[in-house]
Amino acid sequence: MRCRHNWSETCETTLNEQIRAELQASYHYQILGSYFYRDDIGLDKLGDYFNKASLEEREHADKFIKYQNKRGGIVTFSPLNSPNLQLSKEFCVIESFKIALTLERLVNEQLLTLHQTAEKDPQFSDFIEGEFLEEQVDGISDISKKISQLELIGRDGHGILEFIDKL
Q: Which domain holds residue 141?
């Protein structure tokens, strides 16, 4: 690659791992979205919420793919794990947000690993800091608050429907 300059194999490999993490999270969110669209669940606003989250993760993966190519790296795709999400109808709303929190934390851990790798590359470090780190922390905080709200609501179906309506 002609444009490859100061782009280490470690950065290339770690960035490919981040791309995989973003795509894996997107896949999970897509499955959550499809669950809430089912006719026996019927919570379309939650389906929309998780589909939006899926699209955001794919957008992140796309930004990383473009960056990898910009730096002269080679994007390699690894197989994604097929999630087996077992949600109970009674607690599916809070369970889905707990899954989302786990996903966001996993993506954040990988992002922090990527940032440590990037410390030897100021431009790469700046890209990660400017585009991703704060958004990830905000996302974790937002989902954590939603879980707290759902815990306060408890099993009140009307409260859950009102919560969903405000998404």
A: 9-165
User: Is residue 37 situated within a structural domain?
Assistant: yes
| Whether pLDDT at 4 is above 80 | no
d(CA 116, CA 80): 24
* Burial zone of 156 (CB within 10 Å; 0-12 exposed, 13-18 middle, 19+ buried): exposed
- Distance between CA atoms of 103 and 31, rounded to whole angstroms? 13
Q: Is residue 28 scored above 80 in pLDDT? A: yes
Q: Does the residue 67 lie in any domain?
A: yes
Q: What is the CATH number of the domain that holds 149?
A: 1.20.1260.10
pLDDT digit string, tens, across residues 131-156:
999 999 999 999 999 999 999 998 88
1 within a domain of the structure (yes/no) = no
d(Cα 28, Cα 54) in Å, to the nearest integer?
Answer: 8
Q: Which helix (H) or strand (E) holds 60?
A: helix 44-70
Number of domains in the chain: 1
Most confident of 23-37, 76-90, 150-164: 23-37
DSSP conformation letters of 64-98 = HHHHHHHTT------PPP-------TTTHHHHHHH
- Is 3 a member of any domain? no
Q: What is the pLDDT of residue 120?
A: 84
